[in-house]
Hints:
Blueprint lengths: L9 H27 L6 H6 L2 H19 L2 H6 L1
Amino acid sequence: MSTTPSGAGDRLVQVGAIVFFIGALATLVTVAPLFLGTDPFPSIAYAVCMLMGLGFLIAAAGVVRSVWKNSPKRAAAR
């Protein structure tokens, strides 16, 4: 178990990673019928694939928040 205190954006990075992997899994499932020669999924399945990009943005926001909170200028002002 880690004794390191949680950073400002750690939770956002974790949630972003989960959303990203759900989107990646949806992308794999959506592309599979194209290789298997079966009928493609409906359009909503392709919309779920957008979770991959959303997860990346959420994780990036967590990284930016961590950097912002731990910047030397802000640490000196405290």
